[in-house]
Amino acid sequence: MLHFVHVLSMAPYKTASYFACWRQTTVMVLLLYPSEFQPLTTMATIGKATKLSVATLAIMNVTAVVSLRGLPAEAEYGLSSAFYYLFAAIVFLIPTALVAAELAAMFSDKQGGVFRWVGEAFGKRMGFLAIWLQWVESTIWYPTVLTFGAVSLAFIGMNGAHDMALASNRIYTLVVVLAIYWIATFISLKGMSWVGKVSKIGGLVGTIIPAGLLVVLAVIYLASGGHSQLDFHGNFFPDLTNFDNLVLASSIFLFYAGMEMGGIHVKDVENPSVNYPKAVFIGSFVTVLIFILGTYSLGIIIPKSDINLTQSLLVGFDRYFDYIRASWLSPVIAVALAFGVLAGVLTWVAGPSKGIFAVGRAGYLPPFFQKTNENGVQRNILLIQGALVTLLGLLFVVMPSVQSFYQILSQLTVLLYLIMYLLMFAAAIYLRYAMKKANRPFRIGSKGNGLMWLVGGVGFLGSLLAFILSFIPPGQIAVGSKTMWYAVLVIGCIVVVVAPLIIYALRKPSWKDPSTTFEPFHWEDEVKSCE
After folding, report:
1. From residue 255, how far is each of 34, 67, 146 by CA, in Å?
2. Which of the four CATH numbers 1.20.1740.10, 2.60.120.260, 3.40.50.1820, 1.20.58.220 does domain 7-525 have?
């Protein structure tokens, strides 16, 4: 999601927004290796003279999180979808933003991001696991968002039935997914200048304008007497005894991943102990409101029985445009959404891989993974990442439908990302005791650790709940063999978690790049001082 308003109003942050806008995980790269990202140095310097307002930071948080891609998944629940959005905001969105803000401010002068945060608490092995999960999660996530892009392109035509049939075709989707991804990869190998130019336009055209337009169309439809497919007299509270009502909803946690990006700017806010929480709550409220209104807008025009995770957003626009007799706009919005996906992928491809690359240079990955091209881009990591995406794309062959493929990869993404968040929440609580006297420019609670236990504990338990629910196959979607479903999720999690532990155990001193520097962890400093 493009950092558009912030780019216009805060020009000094322009370059940083290229990384922090589109994909939630790319934001952490800005924290990860400040010596390699001049924008952070610029921000720190300018921040002394120009402080961010509460409103500006709230807008930044919103634009870093909001995406339209997942709205159909929650439209399944009708009126009760608002409950899920609010629940996830309370137990995950707000805790994530507050905890990340304390950790970011605490280690703002040191490299590492989530690697630093978790490593300070639980050691280098767990820190490496956290940054690894962040990278692999984003790699697995690419096919799901590119599937959305492929579906968008399918709706460029003017024949609705033909468009829907094409969007459901697995061969078509696979070809488009791989084509867009590898185009984005080759562009990324040329450096970040191209990425920044495309992402600025793509965020506005592919996300912000369509989001506002969808809600406006729903208002026009209802105001002019259109029949609502959404039962506004239904139950706000869902039947929580039915696990099927919770499984798809667990993916909503990933909707909110990215609010931690605001932690980068915690020291750039006047009186952060008061104003940062204000920005978090305002940003959270606006984010939830956009998601609720967007989801309701789809539910108003599409019957619950017709909701499709990959197609319904485009179908919703089609039906609204047909209602106002402007069907010619359907191909326009399809192109806009597809362009937004391409623009975002350009940033995603380069972002998280840059993070694992920086940590790898500190001695955590073999020299092969540290190779760059003439532009200084992490060539080998990008190529390996592309090979993994291609392999995942071949799952189209064994999954019963594009929708089931989309859902199982989305669930695996959620599982991996939530493991990282579990580590982050646990680290924040642990560091309150391991680093009692450390300077905390932003602190959850002015005295004691009670509020940290409450906020971090709620975030941890909320993430744990979503993690458990994500293993259960959704009853609303045909996922084919349940054996295949469980096998992909369980084996996928085990392989991804074990791999970095093996790499860490096999690491050698020769892996460290002599030209890189990495500040020691606090517990390493304490050992040296005792010698």
Report:
1. 27, 7, 16
2. 1.20.1740.10
Q: DSSP code of 110?
A: S
- d(Cα 51, Cα 268) in Å, to the nearest integer? 5
Residue type present at position 114: V
DSSP reduced 3-state for 349: helix
Select the more confidently predicted residue: 26 or 385. 385
Q: Specify the DSSP element, H or E, that contains 354.
A: helix 329-359
Residue (of 404, 432, 377, 408) closest to 493 by Cα position: 408
Look up residue 515 and give its two tokens.
């030209």
Tokens of 280: 């978090």
- Dist. CA 531–CA 527, nearest whole Å: 7
DSSP per residue over 404-448, as a string? HHHHHHHHHHHHHHHHHHHHHHHHHHHHHHHTTTS--SS-SSSSS
Q: What residue has token string 């579906």?
A: 151
Question: In Å, what is the CA distance from 483 to each residue of 49, 50, 354, 477, 486?
Answer: 59, 56, 35, 15, 5
Q: What is the pLDDT of residue 203?
A: 62
Check if the beta carbon of residue 412 is closer than 8 Å to that of residue 140. yes
Residue 94: how many other CB atoms lie within 10 Å: 22
Q: Are 316 and 210 in contact (CB under 8 A)?
A: no
Identify which of 150, 139, 153, 140 has the alpha carbon closest to the alpha carbon of residue 176.
150
CA angle 428, 137, 82 (to 5 degrees): 75
d(CA 477, CA 73): 10
Is residue 442 a contact partner of residue 273, using CB atoms and an 8 Å limit? yes
Q: Rounded to the nearest 5 degrees, what angle is found at the Cα of 310, between the Cα atoms of 209 and 212?
A: 15
- Measure CA of the first residue to CA of the last residue in the chain; give whole Å: 49
Q: Is 175 exposed, middle or buried (0-12, 13-18, 19+ CB in 10 A)?
A: middle
pLDDT in tens, 121-142: 999 999 999 989 988 887 887 8
pLDDT in tens, 57-95: 777 667 667 777 778 877 877 888 888 888 888 888 889
Angle at 288 between CA 287 and CA 290, to 5 degrees: 65
Cα 115 to Cα 359: distance, rounded to the nearest angstrom: 8
The overall average pLDDT reported for the chain is 77
- Helical H segments across 10-53, by residue range: 14-20, 27-32, 38-47
pLDDT confidence bin for 357, thresholds 50/70/90: confident
Q: CA 119, 122, 127, 133 torsion: positive or negative?
A: negative
CB 444 within 8 A of CB 99: yes
C-alpha span between 177 and 341 (Å, rounded):
11
Token code pair at residue 413:
């993404």
Nearest-10 Cα torsion for 89, 93, 95, 96 = 170
Radius of gyration, CA atoms only, the chain = 22
The number of C-alpha atoms within 13 Å of 33 and in the hemisphere containing its C-beta is: 20
Give this prediction's pTM.
Answer: 0.77
Distance of CA 317 to the CA centre of its chain: 24
Q: Which residues pair with 269 in a beta bridge?
A: 52
